[in-house]
Amino acid sequence: MATLKDVARTAGVSVASVSRVLSNQPQVSDALREKVLAAAAHHSFRPNAVGRALRGTGTRTIGLVVSDLLNPFFTELARAVEDAAREAGYLMIVGNADERPEQQDLYVRTLLERQVDGLIVVPTVETSPLLREAADLEQHLVLLDRPASEVHAPLVSSDTSDAVSQLVDYLVTTGRQNIGVLAGPQYAGTAHQRLEAVREALARHGLDLPAERVWVGDYKRDSGRAQTRRMLDERTTPEALLVSNGRMALGVLDTLSHAPVEGSPLPGDLALAAIDDLDVFTLLRPSVTAIAQPTRELGRRAFGLLLDRIAGKPVESVRIPCTLHLRESTEPRRV
Amino acid sequence: MATLKDVARTAGVSVASVSRVLSNQPQVSDALREKVLAAAAHHSFRPNAVGRALRGTGTRTIGLVVSDLLNPFFTELARAVEDAAREAGYLMIVGNADERPEQQDLYVRTLLERQVDGLIVVPTVETSPLLREAADLEQHLVLLDRPASEVHAPLVSSDTSDAVSQLVDYLVTTGRQNIGVLAGPQYAGTAHQRLEAVREALARHGLDLPAERVWVGDYKRDSGRAQTRRMLDERTTPEALLVSNGRMALGVLDTLSHAPVEGSPLPGDLALAAIDDLDVFTLLRPSVTAIAQPTRELGRRAFGLLLDRIAGKPVESVRIPCTLHLRESTEPRRV
DNA sequence: CTGAAAGCGCTTACAG
DNA sequence: CTGAAAGCGCTTACAG
């Protein structure tokens, strides 16, 4: 590949002049500009961003590390961050931690070494010494979706409590008091919050959430299947089940539709709702009630905060409320 | 951030020695190694990959530009490439062209400027001067999933013809001769191939595929909805419809399930099959027959070819066959 | 085994 | 308006 030097030689000018022309600096004569542009075109010159970055003007690159890129929620989140980044002239590099702390740290380390101008992380686990260190070393860091303890960085997350509260109100007032939860994994900061939101909403009706009505999965589809089998085996099926994320809900549905008893128990016997709204929920029969997260808004705000941090402005954590979509899967019994 | 120079100063040695220790070169004394490691730890030293890359040892980064990252097929494809890259010690940067040629070129240009060691592209359109130029300038380029004309680069793609042939055989021998196709957009190289595969399979049975039984969408869900409405309005519904990708099939299902006539026409009246197998197809009722692409294999092979190119080995294009999954949506009429 | 020095491709004060 | 020169952080022949 041709370099500035090559272009300078064919144009018969200095590399400094070539650099000025190609970076659109105003103080250059038209004659010089013309010579340089012709030479650049002749060489199919493409600037080397590595050289430029080393000089210290930043890399115009941000990193995004998500906990699981195959999860459609994170795919859409990544997409929102990417759109915002591209509009602002930044390139986004995504790393997929796949819910593995070592892999998360591998990406964080790699991205820092590549001198990204800032980093957005959906923490896989609640605690990471590397993230803590990065924040303390004044790296530009923004947390997204999930909190991470002792990491001094702003967090952009969704607030499920209002929507959960509306959902619980609806279930209880239509006769379902015996409500169970398929919660997310301990290590994910969101799992705990969502569980608490249900507990508080129930408490407002004077109801409690005993341990035998809480199952725990890992946010993947298979755990939805496994926990549902356990629930059916234990004959402890509640009247309504609130599933902490979308993919587990698919697993639940899959197992219910293959349950030993002919026919699906929905919605007659078991009302079902998910936190996290998937495209397909409207296609299934019964369609699935869900709490939709403000996904694109989350991504957009996270990038906004990061830009502010890079620009040295003060930033604060942000919480954005979710929306409840009532569908067939929570309709009251017909009796 | 601390640099090699800082570490050298505190260790009381030269930067060359620090570099040698930190890159695990063998010819260093234990005493020196110890001093350097201590100093590096003291500074929380993190090597600057930009400095290293400029020196000319490559960036250990590859770029992947996909035509639409929100399409689960490409998400999984990206994931497969990422896994292969990570295992080989490479970082992958994804760019999402969103089916827009200018955006594809933006990413290709940006990635080349950042000195990626190689580039894998799912071409949004059949032709791109920039891609052609990149290939001709000896950049390491591999095309994935879709061909691009006049671009001198190897292609890794899936071969649907066998699976389509099996599917058509099944439909015809079980009494469905009037077969229609919802094809993909002209600009995608795969769309044409898939349509031809159906045409050839039908020809083997002495059947043809007239223009009035071919609808054209853009691989997105909404176009599945729109074309289905057209089909219903025109009262030209065939006995079986083969949809060229998964998301359009979801749109078709959505519209059929809301069709004016009560009840879904599946599978009694209209057999449905998709090219591209989505997770949810097994959850829907009827479950949806699909031709599954060897997604992970495609991603893995593409990265393999790229590594070979980078290593200077000769590489050839690869085609990998698809697999047919017969499900309820193509079951013969019960009559 | 270790160090001094050159150089990767760029940008930007500093002169003129 | 233009050029010569320094320097970003690293690696690697070249000496010793």
TrEMBL record, chains A, B:
The entry's keywords: DNA-binding, Repressor, Transcription, Transcription regulation
Signal sequence region: none
Database matches in InterPro entries: HTH_LacI, LacI/GalR-like_sensor, Lambda_DNA-bd_dom_sf, Peripla_BP_I
CDD domains tied to this protein: HTH_LacI, PBP1_LacI_sugar_binding-like
GO molecular function, one term: transcription cis-regulatory region binding
Every HTH lacI-type domain range: 2-56
Domain of life of the source: Bacteria
Protein name: LacI family transcriptional regulator
